[in-house]
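Lecture 7 notes: from sequence to structure.

We start with a single chain of 132 residues. Read the sequence below before looking at the structure.
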Amino acid sequence: MLWSSIIMDETTLFDLFVNGSPLAGFAGYLVWQTRSMQNRFDAMSEKSESREDDLRARYDKVITDLQSEKEVIKDESKSAIGELSTKIDSLERQLQDVEKKFDQIMLSIQQLGTTVQELRFKDIVRDNNKNT
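Now the structure, written as tokens:
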């Protein structure tokens, strides 16, 4: 039983310790020790809660920092992907232009080849006409 739950004045308590049985003093010591231990436990508990709150705050800060870093990386990645997509589209258009020009050059070469063959035939015919 704790002394805080017993309502007595100082003289009654002193009289109880002095005139009471030897166990009364021991009981008083136990009450004092229990209060002392409870106070220490409360202090340790508060200190532990304070440390826990500090750790929780640090943990929350780390998580927040990591999440914001993740968002930055995600945004940068999206931006880089968008730029690369634009560049790829531009390269595809340029490649299509090059293919068209290549096809035009090939057609011109074929026409030149046909013209050269026609001129050769004309030369051969002319040479045959001169020789005959």
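The radius of gyration is 51 Å. Keep this in mind for problem set 3.
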